[in-house]
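Comment thread on ticket #2218

A.B. wrote:
> Attaching the input chain for the structure job we discussed in standup.
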Amino acid sequence: QVQLVESGGGLVQSGGSLRLSCVASGRWFSIYSMGWFRVPPGKQREFVASIAKDGKTTYGEPVTGRFAISKDGDKNIAYLQMASLKPEDTGVYFCHATGRQGSESIDDDFWGQGTQVTVRS
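C.D. wrote:
> Ran it. Output below, let me know if you need it in another format.
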């Protein structure tokens, strides 16, 4: 059994910063990538950022230059450092991973439960 657990969400002033963490716990055979999606109020889910096993990062256009994704060495932990936050960054942020469970022979997608980020103007 594996799971993704997000933390670090909360209420922050416009222009402020916040750091989200995602811990991939349980028995993993391998994790190929980790990243974040978000669901703003009244909008569809949108891509935020991802980091591959080799360290390559990708960002969605709305957050490019303001957010930074990283991982903790060889540990299965991903971080999303958010700076210069805007009210439009408000939403539920979901951790996402691609990989394979230790008990399985196929690859799959995995999702966390989400953490609320609210940016007030």
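A.B. wrote:
> Thanks. Noting for the ticket: The longest strand covers residues 28-39.
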